[in-house]
Every structure is written in structure tokens, then in C-alpha cells.
Amino acid sequence: MSITTEVWDVDEYAAAVRRALVGLGPEQIEDLTDDLEADLADALADERHNAHGRSLLEQFGPPQEYAAELRSAAGLAPVVVEPRHRTMRDWLGAPFVAMRAGGDRALATLRGQSFWPPVESFLVALRPFWWIARAWTGYQAAMYFAGATTLRWLPRGVLMWVLLGTAVVLSVQWGRGVWFRSGALAWIARAANVFAVVALLPVVVSLQGQTQSWESAYNSSGYGPVQTEVVYQDTPMDGVVVDGMQVSNLFAYDAEGNPLTDVQIFDDRGRPVRTTFDNGSGEWFFPETQEPWSFVSRADEDGRQRWNVYPLKGAPTSEFTFADDGTHALTGTSVPSIPPRPFAKAPALDAPADSSVAADSVVPTTAPTP
């Protein structure tokens, strides 16, 4: 904590103590609080008694209690506080006040143990790390409530980095005691701090599970660093399988090697050949993409959805959202496109043989006459 912040803490605490000395004249207040700022500043700077960076509130308690001790030491009667009706703000803030009081009692109990001083000193040294973690948790929560379908450990794009940087500045300035010191803002900041403590572990667990899912899908696609195990099954499986690995898309080329689009594929019995059976909710990885893709179907002239029109079109999974009916659909601004092809042009085929062939190469359709 900087010197400027300590002086600000001292002035604020001393002013609160003077306000708590209600019912006394200016001269009495001046006598009781003479050199109060200097005494408080010395208490903060005394490393022998304040080696763990405790604040004035932790050392001397609330300003009202400090003012009551001053009254008692001077032989003055304690102030009589008129009962008042609890406001809506009191009711909303009661859980946070109770939590803070419980935390203060637990901290006081720990400080009575011999093992706690070095532990507290270590935790105090880690406060800057918590300021960063608190900002990162707030950024992840903002992304989730903004409707992001895929959370990432670090932002992608300038705007996302600016948002995370803003959260870091706010968190650090609040942790240093520079910002969010007024009543309403302090209450909001405390609520945000409690939310960050509660949400940090679920956010980390969610991102870790998502990362493992992506790695598993990437490795099983055959492009990952882990060797894919080939499983041979006695019973047929749905989809198209090449070398034991399921295929997500098909790319057709003509005789000259040019890519074709909107090619309908059927088998020998007229059944549509499908590679996917997830109706667009699955995630598929390609070597040239940084994130998984999901596919969309094509409608025929009768309005039926076709999944055998190749190559399948789609978009990165982050551009999909769940509709009201539970289906996986693209957002309004996204347009389906063809994913990266394995190669832009395939090898051309040989020219067909000449129509005039040797007579001895023709297989007769009727028996020759002897």
C-alpha cells in the first residue's frame, strides 16, 4: 500500500471518529482527537506491531467503537443511539454484514494461534495475485452473461483484451484502496468480491473440462499429437469410416480435379449417405481451424432437411446458439460456409479411351455361328 493511500485511510478514519463523537462541543472533540491522525499513521507504519499490513479497521475496530473508548477514557457518558427503522438497504446488506462479522471473528481466532502469523504474512504477499484473479473471474462472468457459447482461458480479439484490461485496472485500484471508497460503490465492490470468491472455482473447473473435451475431440480426429486407437467392430456403425476413423465431411472433385459443391450422395440402395448424426449439435475439428466447427443441413424442394449434400456447410461452433425449441442454430449475422478443403484441386484423371477399339477386345453378346 502506498503512502498516499495510508494518509487517505488515516484521514477518513479520523473524520469518522469525530463524527461519532456526537453531542460533544467542538473544544471537547478537539481535546479528545488531538494528534489522532499522527497516532493512527504511526500505528500503520510500526512494523513491530503491524507486520502483516493490517488496516486501521482491523487494528482499532469500527470508528464508533474507537470513539466510545475515547469517551470512556475521558469519563464522559456514552452516546445514546436512537433506534431507527431498518431500511431496504439494511435488509439487503445484512447478509454481507453478517459474513464480514463472521470473517472478522474467524480471523481473530486464527491470529491467536502460533502458526498463523507466517501464514498471514504469506497470504498478504499474494494479494496482487488475487486482484488479477478477481478481474479474470469477473471477465469470464461477463462473457457468460453476454451469451458467449464458448469460454476461453484468455481473450481473443482486441475488444476482449480491452475488457479484461479494464477489469484488471478496476480490481487493482480497488485493492490498493484508491477507488470505490464511497458508501454505495463500496457495497457494490464488496458484493463483486464475494461473487468472485464463489465463482472462481466453478469457472476454472468449467474451463478445464471444456479444454479436456476439445483435446479429446482433437486427438480422436487423427490430427492431434496422441496416436488414435483404431477399433474394429463386427457390427456396422452409422456414418462414413476411413481407416477406423469416422469422417465428418466429404469433398467431391470432377474429372479435371476441380472441387464440386451441392453433391447429393446415395448408396447402392438409394439411401442417403450421412457422415454426421448429431443434427448440427456436434463439434468437429479440422487441421486448418483454430476452433471446432458445427454443420447445418440443406433443405430440398419439399422442405425436408438433407444431410447428404456435400460438402456440408457450417461455421465455427462459437457462432452457434441454442434456439427456443432447443435446436442448435447459427446466430442471425452468421452465414454458413464450406470448411477448409483438404486441397484446392485434385489430380486430373486420364483421358477416356478412344471409342474405336480393336475388334478382338469386344466381348460378343451372342454365340458365333460355326
SSE order and pairing:
Elements: H1 3-20, H2 26-32, H3 36-45, H4 56-60, H5 63-73, H6 88-111, H7 116-125, H8 127-145, H9 158-175, H10 183-220, E1 240-242, E2 245-247, E3 263-264, E4 293-296, E5 298-299, E6 305-306, E7 309-310, E8 313-316, E9 320-322, E10 328-330
Antiparallel strand pairs: 1-2, 3-7, 4-8, 5-6, 9-10
Helix pairs in contact: 1-3, 1-5, 8-9, 8-10
Please explain how this structure is put together.
- The termini are far apart.
- This protein has four domains: 82 residues, no CATH class; 38 residues; 94 residues, no CATH class; 121 residues, no CATH class.
- The protein has ten helices and ten strands.
- The chain is rod-shaped.
- The strands form five sheets. The protein has a two-stranded antiparallel ribbon with strand order 1-2. It has a two-stranded antiparallel ribbon with strand order 3-7. Strands 4-8 form a two-stranded antiparallel ribbon.
- With 370 residues, it is mainly alpha-helical.
